Amino acid sequence: MVSLHRQKILEKEGNQFPAKTYKDLVLEPAYNQAKFNAIRPMLQIHFAHLIMLVEEGIVKKEEAVKIVKSLNKIDIKEVGERFYNGSYEDLFFEVEDFLIQDAGELAGNLHIARSRNDMGIAIYRMNIRERLLYLIEAALHLRQSLIELTEEHIDTVMIGYTHTQQAQPTTLGHYFNAMTDMLTRDIERLQAAFVTVNKSSMGAAALTTSGFSINRGTVQELLGFEGIIDNAWDAVSGADYIGETATAVQLAAIDLGRSTQDLLLWGTQEFGAFKLFSPYVQISSIMPQKQNPVSIEHTRAMLSSVKGDVETVLSMMHNTPFGDIVDTEDDMQPYMWNALEKLTNIYYLLSGVLMTMKVNKKKLLKRAKESFANVTELADTLVRSNNLSFRKAHEIVSASVQDLVENDKESLRYFTLDHLNKHAQQIIGHKLNMRSEELADALDPEHFIKIRSLEGGPSKERMQKTVEVRYEQQRTISAWLAGKRKVLEAASKKIDSKLKSLMPDDE
After folding, report:
1. Which of 176, 335, 404, 461 is the most buried (most CB within 10 A)?
2. Which residues belong to any copy of the Argininosuccinate lyase C-terminal domain (predicted)?
3. Which fold has domain 371-450?
C-alpha cells in the first residue's frame, strides 16, 4: 500500500524523466547556462571534429556536407531564446537530435570517437580561456591607470604606514607603483592559468580515447588550443585547470581588496587624502553633508563576492573522485564564470574611481612635515655625522620622541636641537656634533624621500626609471594578450576555410 506522503511525492515529481524537482534544481539551470555559454563552442567543436573525421577518411565528404548544412541552420540567437521543457536531458542531446532529424542518421557519425566527456571539458576550457583574456585585458587597463597615477603623484609626499601606524615619509606615486607591481604578479598568475586552461581534451572520448584512428592534433589546432592533454583519463577527469584559475583569481581579489581598505580609510574626513569625483559617490537620505564613497565600498564587497565564488569552486573540487563527475561540471562552472566576469568589471570600475579622484596634496605634505615619521633619517644622520652605532642613535631619537609625546607635543615643531642634545647628554654623555640646519634637513620629508634612491625607493629619480620599466612591461603583456587572441582568431578562420573547401562550389 502506497502511503499518502509517497503518493503526493509521486504526483508532484511525475513518473517520467525528468522528475520535477530534478528538472527545476539541476537540468533547467544547466540548460539555461548552456544555451548562452556552451552553444558557440559546441558548434566550433562539431565543425572541428567533423573536419578531422573527413581528413582522416572516417566520414565521407558528401556525408559531411549534409551535416555542415544542418549545423549551419542552428541559430545561436534563437537557441538563447529557448526554454527547457524536459524533452532532452541537455542542450547537447537537443542539438544532436536536431542534426539527425535534419540530415538523417548519417549525422550520428559526428559522434564517432567522441564523448560528451571530452566535449564538455573542451567547452569549459574554451569558456574560461575567453573570460581569462577579458580579465587580463581589464587588469592591463587598471595597470595603465596605476602607472599614470605613479607619474602624476611622483612628488606627492605622504606618510607611509606599517601596522596601521605612521612609519616613514614616501609618495603617493610610490604607493601606486606598489599596487602596480602586485597587480603585475596577479596578471602573471592569470597568464599561467591561461596556459594550463588552453589545452585540448578532444580525442580522449569517454576515458580511453578511441579505436578509430583520429588525429587529436588537428582538432586541437582548429579549436585554438595550444597543447593536448596527453592522458585521456586526465583529460576528462583533471579539474586543476579550473582550480589554478580559481586560485589566481582569488589571490587577485584579495590583493586588490587590501588597497580598497586603504582607500576607504584615506577618503574619510579625518584623513582627508582625496575626494572622489561626484559620479562615484552617493548622498545620505537624512544627513545633508554626507558624500558616501560607495563605489569603493561596492568594490570591496564585490571582491569578497569574487573570493566567495572561487572558494565555492575549490570546495566543490575537494574530495571528489579522480574521474569524470558532475561535481566539477555544470553545477560548478558558473561560479568560475561569475568570478571572472565580476573581477573584470571591478578592474574597470576602480580604474575610473582612481583616475578621477582629487588628491589633497597640501594636506598630505603638511601632515608629513609635522609627523615623527621623519625621524628614521635623523637616526641615520647621527650614525653618519657622529660616528654612533645605529642602535645608540636610535635610542637617542626614540627618547626624544617619547619625551615630546608624553608632554602632548606630538609634532616636529617642538623637535629642536636643544631638545635632542638633552637626551644625547643623558645617553652618550655629551652633545651631538650637529647644526640646526642639519637637523632641519634630517627632519624634512622631502629630503627623506630624495635620498632614498636605491632600487625600489621613492625618490623621483628612481621612480622615473621604474615607470619606464613598468611601461615596457605593459607593452610586453599587451603583446602576449594580442598574440593569444591572434591564435584563437586564426583557428576560427582555419575552420571557416576548411569548411569552405569542403562544401561544393555551388553552395
Report:
1. 176
2. 372-449
3. Ribonucleotide Reductase Protein R1; domain 1 (1.10.40)
